[in-house]
Design a protein that fits this description.
- It is a single chain.
- The protein is of the alpha/beta class.
- It contains 30 helices and eleven strands.
- It has a seven-stranded mixed beta sheet with strand order 2-3-4-1-5-6-8, with helices on both faces. A two-stranded antiparallel sheet has the order 7-9. A two-stranded antiparallel sheet has the order 10-11.
- Helix 12 runs antiparallel to helix 13 (327-344), helix 12 runs antiparallel to helix 14 (347-363) and helix 22 (536-553) runs antiparallel to helix 23 (557-571).
- Bound molecules: guanosine-5'-diphosphate (GDP) and magnesium ion (MG).
Length: 703
């Protein structure tokens, strides 16, 4: 063989590719991007037993050759481009032995495109623990490829795998998927015109959702015209193909599985499942668990949230008292520290929520929830797995959107990503609380229900209905030929592994703090600059005016400072921007001050209360909500002479904050997950429009 042996590691996400890669290459590795895209390509070198060197590539995880993401498309093209100098000589399909079906689906596809394959049956230790055992010899015969049991954590089987790499050749087996006769005609024509040497490979070139970029312009032309001539579209035969492949795999597993997981837990699991997935009790229990979770989030988190709030308030106080006076101190004490405090405050809620979610997942219950919710969610273009992101969205949309990676149907995942921000996240709580306190009387209805609490719940429900309503609309609008199946194995119930729970909590909280933190920090600096500076003559004049009035009223020093701040705010750049947008928001019942808060909270909605506090000249001194509240209550609308925050204005703001997409960090995460600006922009425009219209209707109706 001329040159190095090129080996590619392919497999489902989390099957152990990277662990195996590390076992094979040690520290001998490097990272580069695939040409033209930001998908990482890890390569490394491995010394073989015959002294030669093999070049190993670790590829992003994939479920099948039909890509659902950019990552997967890059891998699919990498495997389909047989003429490239990078085309692997051997593909190692890494499969999780405890969950073989999906790994084998990918394996049969790669065998069918004619690449030499070795199967690394990984996680053999886990399989053994679960009591699963396979007849490897038989598996090898039926698949026509070498099967090597491995444990990528300990390195067990790696030497045997290396041996096998040196002896691999293309399987001589019949393809697993027999192409339809009418497809065979197209495939034959394509093969004649382009010299592709394998039926299924040619078929893949025709069925890829995007015509592979490695084809020459002429070849793309040929593919295009053949698709047209024979009326092919991506996904036309996926259903048939998946059914055939799984049929083959089920057959194979029936023959090679020697010992299934032992039966004792099965009986136990079966009994529990009869209740937990019951047509009625299943839902009742789930609803009850949901209630418990929300109740805990709100009751347990209050205390630590108060601590954090106080801590940051005193830190900010400490800084302004102990650092030399000047703009830098002000920026730190009034801008950055409160800004960071505003993020860290939500950590307890997020931690509690993810503690619950991860316990439910670890115990095996979440798979049942996915199962019972699937049918309902499907009506709205979502899928059973969307339950987790939607639930997480109540704490924060960022970790929620990250958790949509479990949804493998692209359309359903996209819809889940797009509607999740409608779920009322914890950043809306401070806004809701203060506005509700302003406009809803503290009354009890029907003896037990607190009117303010009911309003809060109503807003959460409104967000939820907006989410599933828009999901339904998106389902009708988005075209997708990809059909979706819920391939779900119900795992046994077991005690959660607590260190996994800990890791999940840490991971999700960190991603929230870091993702949201970056943006909020930047915004709080920008906001601070914009509201502290303005045309200098006007700022001076504002100060003089405040001093004059203060002298007349004989105000104390700190009241004077508040007055100066308030007058200067109006002249600041932020004030000018607020005034510029006033005509647009006036029909909603807002003035320029609310306008500033609205604008700043497009970066992060929780900024609203802070901005209001600054605007109503409370400064960073007291974080006491009563003070903000009473200032807001006293605010006069010069047009009516009555209070600014009437029921109509308050309601209009509440609706605005329920629907509007006011979180730059979420938009950034959506961009990262969808790899396109199209979706975050669509989300921003749609949600803002809905927010504007509902706020408008509410204000005009009640004013
Ligand atoms: P990748 O997504 O395919 O690259 O998978 P990783 O190599 O990142 O592995 C996912 C997880 O499975 C990691 O926590 C590994 O430590 C673990 N893992 C990988 N191989 C094995 C194995 O053979 N046995 C066990 N018990 N864990 C494994
Ligand atoms: Mg990996």
């Amino acid at each position: 063989m001329a040159g190095k042996l090129k080996v590619a590691l392919v497999g489902n996400p989390n099957s152990g590719k990277t662990s195996l890669f590390n076992q094979l290459t040690g520290l001998n590795q490097q990272t580069a991007n695939f040409p033209g895209v930001t998908v990482e390509r890890h390569t490394g070198f491995c010394k073989m037993s015959d002294g030669s060197i093999a070049e190993i590539t670790d590829l992003p995880g994939m479920y099948s050759l039909y890509p659902r993401s950019l990552d997967e498309r890059i891998v699919a093209e990498f495997l389909l481009n047989h003429r490239s100098k990078d085309c692997p000589d051997v593909v190692v399909v890494v499969a999780d032995a405890t969950n073989l079906k999906r790994g084998l689906l990918l394996l049969t596809q790669i065998v069918d495109i004619g690449l030499p394959v070795v199967l690394a049956l990984n996680m053999m230790d886990q399989a053994a623990k679960a009591g699963i055992n396979y007849d490897l010899h038989k598996m090898q015969q039926l698949l026509g490829v070498r099967v090597i049991p491995t444990n990528a954590r300990t390195g067990y089987g790696v030497d045997t795998l290396k041996q096998a790499l040196l002896q691999t050749h293309t399987a001589t087996q019949q393809p697993v998927y027999a192409l339809d006769n009418d497809v065979l005609a197209v495939v034959k024509e394509l093969r004649e015109k382009t010299g592709v040497d394998n039926d299924y490979e040619a078929y893949q070139l025709l069925e890829q959702p995007v015509i592979p970029s490695f084809l020459s312009d002429d070849e793309k032309e040929i593919v295009q015209s053949l698709k047209k001539k024979y009326n092919l579209f991506p996904g036309k035969y996926h259903g048939a193909e998946t059914i055939q492949r799984y049929g083959f795999i089920q057959d194979l597993l029936d023959q090679v599985t020697i010992r299934k997981a032992d039966e004792e837990w099965k009986r136990y699991t079966f009994r529990l499942d009869r209740i937990l997935t019951h047509r009625i009790y299943g839902y009742v229990i789930f609803l009850f668990i949901l209630l418990l979770i929300f109740q805990s989030i709100f009751s347990w988190a209050t205390l630590p949230m108060d601590w954090i709030d106080t801590l940051f308030a005193s830190l900010s106080n400490y800084l302004s008292n102990n650092l030399p006076e000047g703009p830098l101190t002000k920026l730190l004490a009034d801008g950055i520290v409160p800004g960071i405090g505003g993020i860290v405050m939500f950590v307890p809620q997020i931690a509690i929520l993810f503690a619950f979610i991860s316990i439910l997942e670890e115990s095996g219950y979440m798979a049942r929830v996915v199962f019972i919710m699937d049918k309902i969610m499907r009506k709205f273009g979502l899928n059973g797995r969307s339950v987790v992101p939607l639930m997480s969205g109540v704490a924060c949309a960022i970790p929620a959107i990250l958790s949509t990676r479990m949804i493998d149907n692209w359309k359903e995942r996209l819809i889940t990503i797009l509607v999740t921000p409608f779920m009322s996240c914890s950043a809306r709580i401070p806004v809701f609380t203060i506005l509700i306190a302003l406009i809803i009387p503290e009354e009890t209805v029907l003896g037990v229900f607190n009117l303010q609490g009911l309003t809060l719940m109503g807003l959460y429900l409104l967000g939820f209905f907006a989410a599933i309503g828009s999901a339904w609309v998106l389902k009708k609008l988005l075209r997708s030929a990809e059909r979706s199946y819920l391939l779900l194995e119900l795992p046994p119930y077991r005690m959660p592994r607590w260190n996994n729970v800990g890791i999940t909590i840490f991971d999700k909280t960190r991603s929230f703090v870091v993702e949201a933190g970056k943006i909020i920090l930047a915004i709080s600096i920008v906001l601070w600059v914009l509201s502290s500076y303005g045309p200098s003559s006007q700022m001076k004049e504002a100060e003089m005016r405040a001093r004059g009035e203060a002298a007349e009223l004989q105000l104390a020093e700190d009241e004077l400072q508040d007055k100066i701040a308030a007058y200067q705010l109006e002249q600041s750049y932020a004030g000018k921007i607020g005034k510029a947008i006033e005509p647009i928001i006036k029909p909603l019942g807002y003035d320029w001050k609310i306008g500033i808060a609205l604008l700043t909270s497009f970066a992060a909605r929780e900024v609203f209360v802070g901005t209001m506090a600054t605007i109503y000249s409370i400064g960073s001194r007291a974080d006491d909500e009563n003070t903000i509240k009473s200032r807001m209550q006293q605010e006069i609308n010069p047009d009516t002479g009555g209070p600014r925050f009437t029921f109509a204005t308050g309601l209009s703001l509440l609706l605005f904050y329920t629907f509007a997409m006011q979180c730059m960090s979420t938009l950034a995460v959506v961009y990262r997950e969808t790899q396109s600006w199209k979706w975050p922009l669509l989300q921003l425009v749609f949600m803002s429009a809905l927010a504007y219209v509902s706020a408008l209707v509410a204000y005009q109706y009640f004013a």
